[in-house]
Write a structure and sequence with these properties.
The protein has 21 helices and 17 strands. With 721 residues, the chain is an alpha+beta fold. The relative contact order is 0.07.
């Protein structure tokens, strides 16, 4: 079977077989090494993201702890707590305001807003401040404040109290510290009563007691107790995230440090940490892909209760889809509603082996099914925070995306094999082509010439016998091409002459081989014109006169083409055209009349332009005609019949610059064109007809203000000629 193949096929198969075997061996070895390297790189990138974020989170909390400790150790904090405490006690000593009377409307609004986020019992007594001083301060700094959305801007409530004087003295400092360090709020707490003596943001926990007030069970209260118990450590403590009702149920974590005055514990400086800041750290400011996490990667913080401490990427990019995924893993409706209002922090529970291991202090990477029910790669590690708090940090990415470089590498290998095959095939074809290329070229050239392409030339690529044969072939084709060009030129000239002499329809019939062409046409309108005064051209030299004659002829022919006229005769002193013959038309008479007026206008323009005295006399008639090609040496296309004779006779008899029309023409154009000077003429012994002079279009005459009487063709004619 192999023997029956052509030489080209044999060379291609041999080169392909040998080269492909070598390529498969090399690519196979490289593939297994490459896949292993890519998998290691994927795990390394995921581990790097995990470790980097763990470091950032721990660093963030340790920096925040350092800031809190510095603020708490400052002399300003100790002085502020003592001055606020003394001023607070002055207000406490005087019952100057009724809680239920002055704060009820404010707390109604507060409970409305809180109820939108958390399910709470609407009992005002559960949230009211528990002291007269708290009522007084909340009234002046919360309820009475005109800056509802910016109470932190108020330096002095304007109540004339000592408290407001102290507040004005310290508020600017702590407000600036809040803005500079990115805290949500800063508190100064009296150590004896656990009362919040001062707050930058002024929410409903302001001026209340964390030991006996409405928020005694909050995580801020737990922080105060934790700091007091560990005051001897003289370092910041942290209270983990919990729903904080004064902040309308938003998740809040607190950090605090003891405040000493002359080695005596006088209070606590606490801060409310910003969830937004933690989210920015965990979510790269929204630039996940730019930081190596692709389209599905994310970093999560999970607390010891297995609840989220940061917003997942999937929640931030497609909230509705995230909530739908949570429904599919059987999250109850109450949590779904809570997550929709305040987000997934402290709502979404992620309980898995990797998180459990991270909370135990382990770090690793595993393959598992994520909370979206997709196969993922998960890199986990513990995050140790100040005060002994531990969270789990998990970096996750869809396994399909993470391993997409492996798939791409596989595709590249397949593409490389295909490319090698293609290159080898091309090389084999090039080699064989170089051997039989001259024969192929001559064969293709001969086929092209047989198909009629005489422009083809075969490139000479060698100076051997095949090169000589190529030269002979090209010479032969060149000779054929010259003969073909001459024949085509003669055919074009004959064709142009044919269409110039005959109407297009007749020329097409004649060209298609039809002989003895003669037709009879009904309802044809004829225009015959005599051009007189050509003797005025004798004053010009032939070089000057001939362009005038050509201009007249060209403009007559252009007008005829524009109006759909068929030109039969066009000589310097005569012009014969018809309408409605080979091309039937319904408005023959109208077109002929317009043609007559255009010809008159053309002659007037020529006379003015060249200062000559040409005169155009024309006749119009309508009726049946015969038309045909004379089978003699002239091969002229002629028309004849009574209507033709009438038009030519009228042109001959017309006075200077006059266009005459037969009675039938006048009747056809009655109302559109105006005729006058109706009279009878004798065309033959028994042929007397009525004719009239064409004046112009009725609309044009009316527009020019020319007065005329409409022609009555039924009136008797008295004049003869």
């Amino acid at each position: 079977m192999f023997k029956s193949f052509s030489l080209r096929s044999k060379l291609i198969l041999i080169l392909l077989g040998v080269s492909l075997l070598a390529a498969l061996i090399v690519i196979g070895v490289g593939y297994f090494v490459g896949v292993e390297s890519i998998e290691k790189e994927v795990y390394a990138r995921l581990t790097s993201a995990r470790n980097g974020k763990a470091f950032e989170v721990e660093e963030y909390f340790h920096q925040e702890a350092a800031v809190v400790e510095i603020l708490a150790k400052s002399e300003k904090a100790a002085q502020a707590i003592q001055e606020f405490t003394m001023a607070f006690r002055q207000i406490e000593a005087s019952d100057t305001i009724s809680c239920t009377r002055d704060l009820e409307a404010y707390y109604d609004d507060f409970l409305d807003s809180l109820g939108q986020n958390l399910t709470v019992r609407r009992e005002l007594s559960s949230y009211y401040p528990n002291s007269a001083a708290a009522c007084y301060l909340q009234y002046h700094y919360l309820s009475k404040s005109t800056l509802t959305d910016a109470r932190y801007e108020v330096d002095n409530a304007g109540d004339g109290s000592e408290y407001s004087t102290v507040h004005e003295r310290y508020h600017d400092f702590y407000r600036e510290a809040l803005q500079k360090f990115g805290f949500y709020d800063i508190f100064l707490i009296d150590i004896q009563t656990k009362t919040i003596m001062y707050s930058v943001m002024k929410e409903t926990d302001y001026a209340t007691s964390l030991s006996s007030g409405p928020y005694r069970n909050s995580n801020l209260a737990a922080l105060a107790e934790k700091v007091e118990k560990n005051a001897d450590l003289n370092e910041a403590q942290i209270a983990d995230f919990s729903f904080y009702r004064p902040s309308y149920g938003a998740p809040a974590a607190f950090m605090g440090s003891p405040v000493f005055y002359r080695n005596e514990l006088v209070g606590i400086l606490a801060v409310q940490l910003s969830v937004d800041k933690i989210n920015r750290i965990m979510n790269y400011g929204g630039e996940w892909a730019e930081n190596g996490l692709g389209e599905t990667g994310e970093v999560l913080l999970v607390g010891e209760d297995y609840l989220l401490r940061s917003d997942p990427r999937s929640f931030l990019t497609d909230k509705d889809r995230f909530i739908e995924n949570m429904k599919q893993i059987n999250m109850n409706d109450e949590k779904i509603d809570l997550m929709a209002s305040i987000g997934p922090i402290l709502v979404t529970e992620l309980r898995s082996d990797n998180i459990t291991r991270a909370l135990r202090g382990e770090s690793n990477i595993t393959e598992m099914i994520g909370y979206n029910n997709d196969a993922i790669l998960s890199a986990f590690t513990p995050v140790d925070l100040p005060g002994g708090l531990r969270w789990a940090l998990v970096t996750e990415i869809d396994e399909a995306e993470a391993m997409s470089p492996v798939q791409r590498f596989q595709n590249l290998n397949l593409a490389a094999v295909a490319l090698i095959i293609a290159i080898i095939t091309i090389m084999a074809m090039a080699i064989t082509r170089s051997l039989i290329r001259p024969i192929d070229r001559l064969t293709e050239g001969a086929e092209a010439v047989r198909a009629g392409d005489t422009k083809v030339r075969v490139e000479k690529i060698a100076n051997d016998e095949m090169g000589r044969l190529t030269e002979v072939f090209n010479g032969m084709v060149e000779s054929i091409d010259e003969q073909k060009s001459e024949i085509e030129k003669q055919a074009r000239e004959n064709n142009d002459l044919l269409y110039n002499r005959f109407p297009d329809a007749i020329a097409e019939r004649y060209r298609n081989g039809e002989v003895n062409i003669v037709d009879k046409f009904q309802g044809v309108t004829i225009l015959s014109a005599d051009l007189r005064g050509t003797s005025s051209l004798d004053e010009f030299t032939p070089d000057m006169a001939w362009p005038i004659v050509q201009e007249v002829s060209a403009r007559f022919n252009d007008a005829a083409d524009e109006l759909g006229m068929e030109v039969i005769i066009a000589i310097p002193d005569g012009f014969l055209c018809v309408c409605g013959m080979n091309i039937p038309r319904l408005d023959n008479a109208r077109r002929v009349a317009i043609m007559a007026l255009k010809m008159r206008e053309i002659i007037e323009n020529i006379n003015t332009k060249h200062n000559v005295s040409l005169v155009l006399n024309a006749g119009m008639s309508t009726g049946p005609v015969l038309a045909g090609i004379l089978e003699d040496q002239t091969k002229n296309y002629v028309i004849w019949g009574p209507a033709v004779d009438a038009a030519q006779r009228l042109a001959y008899l017309a006075a200077r610059n006059m266009t005459l029309g037969t009675e039938e023409m006048m009747r056809l154009m009655a109302g559109n064109f105006h005729f006058d000077k109706v009279h009878t003429i004798k065309l033959g012994p028994k042929n007397i007809i009525r004719v009239g002079r064409l004046v112009g279009r009725v609309t044009d005459l009316q527009a020019a203000g020319v007065e005329f009487t409409p022609l009555d063709l039924d009136a008797p004619t008295t004049k003869k000629s």
